Amino acid sequence: MDSKSQTEILNAVDDLFDAETQFLSELTSHPSTRGREQSAQDFMASELTQRGYKVDRWQIDVDDIRHLPGFSPVIGNYEDAVNVVGTHRSATRNGRSLILNGHIDVVPEGPLDMWDTPPYDPRVDDGWMYGRGAGDMKAGLASNLFALDALRRCGFAPAADVFFQSVVEEECTGNGALACLQRGYTAEAALIPEPFAESLITAQVGVLWFQLHLKGLPTHVAYAGSGSNGIEAAIPLLAALHEMEDRWNADDAKHPDYAHVHHPLNLNVGKIQGGDWASSVPAWSVLDLRMGLYPGQSIPEAKAEIEAVVMEAARASDFLRNNLPEIVYHGFEAEGYALSEDSSTTAQQAIGTLESAHTAVTGTALDRGPTTATTDARFFGLYADTPALVYGPRAEAIHGFNERVDLDSVRRVTQTTALFIADWCGLETV
Amino acid sequence: MDSKSQTEILNAVDDLFDAETQFLSELTSHPSTRGREQSAQDFMASELTQRGYKVDRWQIDVDDIRHLPGFSPVIGNYEDAVNVVGTHRSATRNGRSLILNGHIDVVPEGPLDMWDTPPYDPRVDDGWMYGRGAGDMKAGLASNLFALDALRRCGFAPAADVFFQSVVEEECTGNGALACLQRGYTAEAALIPEPFAESLITAQVGVLWFQLHLKGLPTHVAYAGSGSNGIEAAIPLLAALHEMEDRWNADDAKHPDYAHVHHPLNLNVGKIQGGDWASSVPAWSVLDLRMGLYPGQSIPEAKAEIEAVVMEAARASDFLRNNLPEIVYHGFEAEGYALSEDSSTTAQQAIGTLESAHTAVTGTALDRGPTTATTDARFFGLYADTPALVYGPRAEAIHGFNERVDLDSVRRVTQTTALFIADWCGLETV
């Protein structure tokens, strides 16, 4: 690409950035937690249609995907699980095809009183946009869309097919991205602008979600000694699971990509509910846990170890020995994925193309590193032989209160994305 | 009372016992958990009206009672909190007046799949009636009512005023019994047939309910190390509270009535809720706890010690030190009560009268002892100078699954109650 075109493209992103910020604000105002993604997907579909993309919008059918590798057990049902894909068909098809992927779902906002301002009433302050999902990852959806807009403003379109994906379920299963694969959407590379501060993710962990269902022996608290507390029963089990977590994080257990990461695999007790009455010894509790896995680590083996650890700890309790906990898997059964292990020419070219674009925009080399989170990249990388570049803006407090994204960073990522598309796909005139 | 009258009364209870069992079954079928007592109270009011008692039925007004000793902070509101009192006015008033008290509220039934048969579909098997509340304490309400019925069947009525009380809120505050006091219902003794296996309760513990509201520092679990888990934060606080519990249960700390009771004061973690998402470090949890107190133990001092223990444990955590837990009191602020400490003639006479009746029915001496639970007896004993006899049938699994009451025991308690009324109040002909 000549430097004049490059400058024009960067300027077009700048020219459109107020509109992009407005778009991001509107998208963030939709409270698209699991099961409530519809209005946000309506908005996305309408924006894609207005721009002339061919829009494919469908409800995920579990029967279409449950047999596929990478499928995770469904939580609830998929009555409201709708994916949106907008397709650009190139007239010339001279370049390499591309998937621009982002997820529309956000995690719950938690207690409202812990937010300084309402989570779905986005505001901009000192260069940051605040709101649930602003960073994770509606800014990425915005940058994907406005990178294409910027090319068009310059009179260009990608000289290859581009699939713009707005998927559900990234935060709990990944089945939204899997359903896109199943529906036939493939390309020579994928870009996922998850909020990792303009660095390229070289490896991501796997994630396993599981529930512990514990029983108690309920009695009137007057006879608490004859009962068994179904809430406190969790304490030794959690201690045993944290010991397992320590073993998995030991230096000699680490995957090479994580050799210098302090504690890559986190066990999280994310949710708990138990008991019905302060003066009754509780009969039950349910805990929702999340455990990280290394790339290449077997999910069946991880499950077997978790089960062994929980059951061994349970057998140390007189009561739990005869009332063993139940372990229920639903949600993430996500394998880890390492782009670093993809030695294909396509992967090297995609990374090189991204690095050139990043350097052209920022004047710096491209930082690279592993993440201790998962993303939908695994579907492209592991199950479709497609290198997936995870590269997006800087955000803070994702999954927390006062989540925010750095708008200057969003602008740079949009510019980098536009240059990447121009280089990877090539350009044709509109 | 002559032995012929006594035999007639005992036979009358036998004759009516099928009807009493039927009544108990119907009463147990009403799921009268907190806020849902209305249909059970409708049934009680209708049964009292049919029998010719003057029925007083009123919604508790918190403003009437909040200033009174023994008041406990309200959970929710009292829109559905209705007491029922049926009054027998004696024509002769030769005897001593009496309150027959029972509570209509039951504790939540918990997960239905842990019951062998549905909790509000009572059944009789091998001499036991099963159902939530069958023992605690609808059998007591039945025995109070049918003891009076048996006297009437013999052509008698009590020769003193008798107040039949069916109160709400026993299981969480006691404000139902308090509202009866405030409304002017007093008598020379009270009988409360709580299910303590035909023994007389000489002392009962106090109960304090409190909530721990814990905060966490939520982040994406990928960065769990930088967050602070608002669920697991509870673990060291519970450990510290259990140490306090051990101190309070030490031999030299015990109230004399509990000198030979192994562990009179139980701390119970009855309920917990926390977190919103398996992959988010949880920002919050709320635990509902119950702690027992000795008769005479000061509630303000108990609160101060609990607060000191919780805060000291919290200060040992880097995160909690700057985000101290909040302790919220709602529900029970119940003082302990010891009938054994009531040296009045009235108390001695009431106990003697009960013992005679018990022996006449069972042929055995009256067992006496302390309980590690609380009852509404404290309102009569502590705040109305009225000895309160807690004496009722044998039940099992109260507050648990498959709660059941021994129907032979219900029959004996009904007989003892009828003889007690006859002796305490005296008899007049209808």
TrEMBL record, chains A, B:
Question: Which Enzyme Commission number(s) are on file for it?
Answer: 3.4.-.-
Family recorded in the similarity comment: Belongs to the peptidase M20A family.
Domain of life of the organism in this record?
A: Bacteria
Q: What's this protein's name? A: ArgE/DapE family deacylase
Q: Please give the Gene Ontology molecular function terms for this protein.
A: hydrolase activity; metal ion binding
InterPro entries for the chain: ArgE/DapE (IPR010182), Bact_exopeptidase_dim_dom (IPR036264), Peptidase_M20 (IPR002933), Peptidase_M20_dimer (IPR011650), Peptidase_M20A (IPR050072), YodQ-like (IPR033687)
Keyword field contains Glycoprotein: no
What cofactor is needed? Co(2+); Zn(2+)
- Domain Peptidase M20 dimerisation, first and last residues per copy: 203-315
**Keyword Metal-binding listed:** yes
